[in-house]
Amino acid sequence: MGLFILRRFGVMILTAFCLTFIVFWLTNLGPNLEKLAKTQGNARMSDDAVVSWLANRGYSQPLPIKYGQWLGVLPGYVIDGTDGEVRARCAGPGEAVEEASTFCGILQGDWGFSTVAKDNVSAVLPGRLANTGKLMGWVMLVMVPGALIVGVLAGMREGSRTDRTLSTASIVTTATPEYVSGVLFISLFATGTFGMQWFKGTASSAVENATFENFFLPVMTIALYGMGYIARMTRASMAEVMTAQYIRTARLKGVSFPKIVLKHALRNALIAPFTVIMLQIPWLLSGVVIVETLFTYQGFGWELVRAASNNDIEMLLGVSVISVFVVLMTQLISDIGYVYLNPRIRIS
Asked: Global pTM?
């Protein structure tokens, strides 16, 4: 197991480098840099002025060098600009160039400066992640038990009326995107349009003080979409397990049906849904982008949309690093858990 984990960590590091380099290349394309120059400088500056502005701030360097400086494995630039000002990548606000560090990148904890938030990325993202973590925690608390219960109830008696009803409901929830269900929930239960203003709070207030009124709708919007998919996987796995030979043997021995389900069938039936549940975590990072924007909940997804809309390059890069880390760690935990749930799998 130890060798397997080390091998996976090596693959994860290589994958992280590749993915972050692709994101870095995309955010540093010419049109993006030109937009950045005109946003931070002058919207009417000439093409020559744009080139000069970018060169004075290190954006005209070769892409591998810029990527190495961003990671913190190459020395930061020191440029004597055409405007007569000397700039250093590692010199903070009010810090002399001579006193600046040589290396300043992700590995040194310097994630750059957000041009929109007007603060360091490392100071903004933890709060946004905490807000999204709170939202995702409640979503998982609602989604996973609910989906497992629905899936087990449907799969225990395949083809029954209960199975058909729950399966239909699962398909409907999975086929309804968050931006549709979210708008419907707001129209039905929050605006009072149809005389049902049950939730008067706003998701913005849930950042400081989450209550049932201001937090229920965004949680249910995300949970319902993922719940149907997990329930369908659980139902299919449960239906397959219930036809296994050892289940028939337990029935012939006179074991009660609830005991057969809980003691014999459930663990084996959870092997496939476990992988799906773990994959919901990186999916939630993309799902919260829509829901947080729709409900104006200032979390990770909301910050991503704001950074993309305003060409906040450093914030986009910081978001990409965290997203890659979450996805890769989730896959590693999923693989390890899969081995423990299914002893028949050998690591070689």
From this structure: 0.79
